[in-house]
Amino acid sequence: MTAEDFASRMEKAYDTVTNDPRQPNYARAAQAQYRDSYKDGKYKEYNLDKKGEGSWWLPVQDNSRLDEEAAWNCNELPFWVKNGDTPAVKNAVTPQILAELAYNQVQLPTTKVSLAPANTTKVNLPTWAWLDGAKFKEVSVTAALNAAGVNIQATTTAKPVSLKLEPGTADAETYPASAECAINDDGSIGEQYTKGNGDRTPPCGVKYLRSSGNGTFSLRATITWDITWTGTGGAGGDLPDATFGSDQAVTVQEIQAVNR
Predict the structure, then answer these.
(1) Which of 139, 113, 137 lies closest to 127 in space, CA to CA?
(2) Spatial separation of the C-alpha atoms in residues 258 and 255, rounded to whole Å
(3) Nearest-CA neighbor of 252 among 225, 201, 218?
């Protein structure tokens, strides 16, 4: 906060408490003591004579995560920081913290794979699976702090790197055997089935070894995203990988054969 904003905030809080007849005397005394420490104590008149040279830093909690103990680890009393300086306190906003905030805002697409045959397949028939490269591409979010002499930012980027297939039953085989389909150079995963590929083994897919009967198997497709960040001053690094998946119902039928 600027010196002017901080002074206004402190005076407003002081007036609110001391002029409220419902407040007990100890609350009024505590508010007055708190105000005086910045008005006529360690600091003088909220450092208004130094406005433009620095700013006040205050603790801020994430309102959506107040039930987490770690949300209250940032509990420093307001303190003054010169422009360009990084405060030597835990959890002070840095490009990395901005990158972590941006991480929380990354919106990734749902993971529904295209299948051939689609929705209904046959026992022992290789089912091809693929994802469109146009949909599964890098996603970036930038978080910035530009206020009261502080100007830093960070960009967090999520890049899809692999697809994992879980057939929904132990009576199945995956392609490849690891069930991990790597991303292609064009950003796609797997290969779209085209007519004439019936004799080929799919680079990404599944083969069911038994019927799903009157029900379906729940095929789960999970994308692993590699998360990196870059920030002010050439900072950057890695953040934990993200995995997002979804289930889709697959009907597996027996191939009926007739002997003559």
Answers:
(1) 113
(2) 10
(3) 218
- Calculate ∠ Cα 52-55-58, nearest 5°: 165
For 88, counting Cβ atoms within 10 Å of its Cβ (0-12 exposed, 13-18 middle, 19+ buried), the class is exposed
pTM above 0.70, yes or no: yes
The model's pLDDT over 209-249, given as tens digits with 9 standing for 90+, comes to 999 999 999 999 999 999 999 999 899 999 999 888 889 99
| β-bridge partners, 40 | 44
- Asked whether the beta carbons of 39 and 46 are under 8 A apart, the reply is yes
Cα separations in angstroms, 233 against 8, 95, 153, 230? 33, 9, 9, 9
Whether 207 and 175 have beta carbons less than 8 Å apart is answered as: yes
- The string of pLDDT tens digits covering residues 134-171 is 677 889 999 998 876 778 999 999 998 889 999 999 99
Kindly report the backbone phi and psi dihedral angles of residue 5, in degrees, each rounded to the nearest multiple of 5, phi listed first.
Answer: -65, -40
Going by the DSSP 8-state scheme, the letter that residue 48 receives in this structure is G
Return the H-helix or E-strand segment holding 102: helix 95-103
Q: With CA atoms as reference, report the closest residue to 34 among 13, 55, 4.
A: 13
β-strands 114-116, 54-57 pairing = unpaired
Angle, helices 25-39/3-18, rounded to nearest 10 degrees:
160
Q: What is the distance between the alpha carbons of residues 260 and 257, in angstroms, rounded to a whole number?
A: 10
pLDDT tens-digit map of 172-215 = 999 999 999 988 888 888 888 888 777 789 999 999 999 999 99
